[in-house]
Amino acid sequence: MEFWKYAFxxxxxxxxxxxxxxxxxxxxxxxxxxxxxHEITSISYV
Length: 46
Fold this sequence. Notes:
Blueprint: H1 2-9, H2 15-19, H3 34-41
Protein name: XkdX family protein
Pfam family, one: Phage_XkdX
Organism: Paenibacillus arenosi
């Protein structure tokens, strides 16, 4: 998760791009959880 937080903080990626890295039923190979997404972006993952 540290990489994704750093990339988001440095504006290398935005919240829309980070959503693609979230582990869900449709994306089982995602690298972060919905809770981590919220922790990084302060936006709830719905």
